[in-house]
């Protein structure tokens, strides 16, 4: 089993959502991004206590699994969270996203628009009056674009 699968199983077993794993060369730094448990969705984000609980659990798990690393960081994905799965796109329909394609469409690989729908394996991204359809397998990287209103607050609709 690869490291990401081990971490995902552990994080979801604790009731949190696994968002992403970043690691430095030779996996000396492991950075794990988690999301709120399903029962807390819409009630606020990840707390320091959540991060500490996951970090403590992963530290013990890594000792048992003999996973060698120097530093572990656990945090929320932030306002510009990555969209890694089709379910991420479904969850954030109505939010603005930045999408980078593996292969250019015309001369363009980068798109910013509102996620309008997920239909089958395609993402519908609305840019002004134009809706673009991208096969999920062609998306290299995608992130939410934080929406800052005049109050300085950021709103991410879940």
Q: Can you give the mean pLDDT? A: 89
CATH architecture identity of the largest domain: 2-Layer Sandwich
Share of helix, binned = 10-25%
Q: In terms of structural class, how would the helical and strand content be classed?
A: alpha+beta
Number of helices: 3
Number of domains: 2
Shape from CA axes? globular
Largest sheet: 5 strands, antiparallel
Strand order of the largest sheet: 7-6-5-4-8
Question: Which sequence of SSEs, written as H and E, runs from N to C?
Answer: HEEHEHEEEEEEE
Overall number of strands: 10
Looking at the structure, the CATH topology of the largest domain is GMP Synthetase, Chain A, domain 3
Beta-strand portion reads 35-45%
Rg on CA atoms, Å:
17 Å
CATH class of the largest domain: Alpha Beta
- What is the first-to-last residue Cα distance? 31 Å
Question: Can you walk me through this structure?
Answer:
The protein is an alpha+beta fold and 158 residues long. It folds into two domains: 3-75, GMP Synthetase, Chain A, domain 3, CATH 3.30.300; 86-155, SH3 type barrels, CATH 2.30.30. Helices cover 22% and strands 40% of the residues. The protein is built from three helices and ten strands. It has helices at residues 3-13, 48-65, 86-91, and strands at 17-23, 29-35, 71-75, 96-105, 108-119, 122-127, 130-135, 139-144, 147-148, 154-155. The chain has a five-stranded antiparallel beta sheet with strand order 7-6-5-4-8. It has a three-stranded mixed beta sheet with strand order 1-2-3, with helices on one face. Strands 9-10 form a two-stranded antiparallel sheet. The radius of gyration is 17 Å and the shape is globular. The two termini are 31 Å apart. The model has no long low-confidence stretch (mean pLDDT 89).
């Amino acid at each position: 089993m690869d490291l990401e699968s081990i971490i995902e199983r552990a994080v979801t077993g604790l009731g949190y959502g696994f968002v992403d794993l970043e690691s430095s060369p030779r996996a000396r730094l492991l950075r794990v991004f988690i999301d709120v448990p399903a029962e807390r969705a819409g009630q606020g984000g990840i707390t320091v206590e959540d991060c500490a609980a996951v970090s403590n659990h992963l530290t013990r798990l890594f000792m048992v699994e003999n996973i060698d690393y120097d530093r572990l960081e656990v945090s929320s994905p932030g306002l510009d969270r990555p969209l890694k799965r089709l379910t991420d796109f479904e969850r954030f329909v109505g939010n603005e996203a930045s999408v980078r394609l593996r292969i250019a469409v015309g001369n363009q690989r980068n798109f910013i628009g509102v996620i309008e729908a997920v239909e089958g394996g395609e993402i519908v991204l609305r840019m002004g009056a134009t809706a673009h359809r991208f096969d999920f397998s062609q998306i290299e990287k995608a992130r939410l674009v934080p929406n800052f209103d005049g109050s300085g607050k950021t709103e991410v609709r879940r």
